[in-house]
Fold this sequence. Notes:
Distance between the termini: 24 Å
Amino acid sequence: MSWEIKYHQALDDLRAATYDTTVDALVAELPYLWLDRYTTMCDGQVNVLRITVLDLEYLFDFCTEIGAPREDRVVVAFGRSRPGDVSRPSSRIAGFPGSDDRGDRGHFIAHSGGGGVDINLFHQDQQVNRGWSVEGKEFRRMERYYADHPGTFCFSRPAYKDATARPSLLEVGILRRDLTFWIASFSNDPAG
């Protein structure tokens, strides 16, 4: 089974009369697809929990609870964007473990789009996180879009090539108001 998901096909199958009902249908169905694809990249059992934080949802593999040989990590972050908090808890972000040698402290859902810290943080390639590369400019455009359009359905789905919590790839998706998807993938592999 491939890691890829044919979102446009899923949208065609689920599309409802309004934006809200389409989002409701996606939120009901996509987590099953994401979980299915995640299990294909893992050796051994998974222990995936569905967690809500700041109106966003996360599928989170709490694998250390069952003794699996992986770091605990996010499977996907998704929900509707909302205005971000004015202040960023910089001390909490700075305390994110291992950040000095594993990349920037990126957000699965941008702070400006309502994403918080803790479960929402990951080690991200500096060029992408800061918008310094072509890929990074696209990544930042996507973050600005859902931040500038509160209530937009968005998701961030990491792919892992090893047992760490640092993704090698990040897939970001946005459902626009015209019921079309904007989806892009961004390399997060420090080795290229």
